[in-house]
């Protein structure tokens, strides 16, 4: 086939920039969407190129990047650094940034001020807060400021000490009904999406059916509109016992370790740098 006879070049279909209206359409149309955490430019670029609709800059950076045992120590300043890095790499995904512990609980005004700072300084598209029915005024205040807010209910890691550790929430008829009621209250307050963590699958499904906004699950079955995983869990970077809800789609840790060993061996033997790596 000559150049003239070859098929014309077909440009790849550009990825659509995801916004809250698209997430709402997923819910309306019975479609599912994906969310992964990211904390740096390169992982954000990869997930963005893969078509991951939403990326969470989670306060989980505290125990997945910074080495803390819990999410509690991470600060607003640190979250801003991570969020700016992700925003530099992701051009299509919808970006959500966690409000860290201590940055929104004092008052709705504190929550709005923190949210405004994060939105102005990072380039993300929404904020997330861990809450229950007591934070409806906070959600309403953030939404009234023109900032999309995602309400995180069920197990909320920032409250792990008051919840008695990592425990499934919403078990039993009374607890399940309370979770549904809370979700409806947060929707009415202005939350554009509800995230449910470590909730029985049937309860999460009831929540999704009770609200008109999309829902995102982590350890909450497949009855939610979206699903989220921490990327280090999903790609096999973390060691030790994994939560029951994690599915690993790759094992990167041994690959990285072997590459590091090979590099070390080449340096020790003098094989690296080789002549092709040198300047004349």
Q: How are the secondary structure elements laid out?
A:
Blueprint: H1 20-29, E1 33-37, H2 41-49, E2 54-57, H3 61-64, H4 76-89, E3 94-98, H5 108-122, E4 126-130, H6 136-144, E5 149-154, H7 160-163, H8 173-189, E6 193-197, H9 201-210, E7 215-218, E8 226-229, H10 231-234, H11 252-269
Parallel strand pairs: 1-2, 1-8, 2-3, 3-4, 4-5, 5-6, 6-7, 7-8
Helix pairs in contact: 2-4, 4-5, 5-6, 6-8, 8-9
Please supply descriptive tags for the structure shown above:
single chain, 280 residues, alpha/beta, TIM Barrel, 2 domains, eight-stranded parallel barrel, 8 strands, 41% helix, Pantoate_hydroxy_MeTrfase, 3-methyl-2-oxobutanoate hydroxymethyltransferase activity, Pyrv/PenolPyrv_kinase-like_dom, pantothenate biosynthesis
Write structural notes for this entry.
It is an enzyme of class 2 (transferase). It comes from Neomicrococcus lactis. It is found in: Cytoplasm. This protein is an alpha/beta fold. It folds into two domains: 20-249, TIM Barrel; 251-279, no CATH class. Helices cover 41% and strands 14% of the residues. The chain has helices spanning 20-29, 41-49, 61-64, 76-89, 108-122, 136-144, 160-163, 173-189, 201-210, 231-234, 252-269; strands spanning 33-37, 54-57, 94-98, 126-130, 149-154, 193-197, 215-218, 226-229. The chain has an eight-stranded parallel barrel, surrounded by seven helices. The radius of gyration is 21 Å and the shape is globular. The two termini are 43 Å apart.
């Amino acid at each position: 086939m000559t150049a003239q006879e070859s098929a014309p070049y077909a440009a790849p279909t550009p990825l659509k920039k995801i916004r809250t209206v698209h997430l709402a359409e997923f819910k309306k149309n019975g479609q599912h969407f994906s969310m992964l955490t990211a904390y740096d430019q390169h992982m954000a670029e990869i997930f963005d190129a893969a078509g991951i609709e939403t990326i969470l800059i989670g306060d989980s950076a505290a125990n997945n990047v910074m080495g803390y045992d819990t999410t509690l120590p991470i600060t607003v300043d640190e979250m801003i650094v991570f969020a700016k890095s992700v925003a530099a790499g992701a051009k299509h995904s919808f970006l959500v940034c966690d409000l860290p512990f201590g940055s929104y609980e004092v008052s709705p005004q504190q929550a709005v001020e923190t949210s405004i700072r994060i939105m102005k300084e990072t380039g993300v598209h929404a904020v997330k807060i861990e809450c229950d029915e007591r934070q409806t005024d906070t959600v309403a205040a953030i939404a009234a400021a023109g900032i999309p807010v995602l309400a995180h209910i069920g197990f909320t890691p920032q409250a792990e000490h008051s919840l008695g550790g990592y425990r499934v929430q919403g078990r039993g008829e009374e607890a399940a009904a309370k979770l549904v009621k809370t979700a409806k209250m947060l929707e009415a307050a202005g939350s554009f999406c509800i995230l449910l963590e470590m909730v029985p699958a049937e309860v999460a499904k009831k929540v999704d059916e009770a609200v008109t906004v999309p829902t995102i699950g982590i350890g909450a079955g497949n009855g939610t509109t979206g699903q989220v995983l921490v990327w280090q869990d999903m790609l096999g970077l973390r060691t030790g016992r994994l939560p029951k809800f994690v599915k690993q789609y790759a094992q990167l840790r041994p690959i990285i370790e072997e590459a590091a060993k090979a590099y070390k061996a080449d340096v020790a033997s003098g094989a690296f740098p080789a002549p092709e790596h040198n300047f004349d």
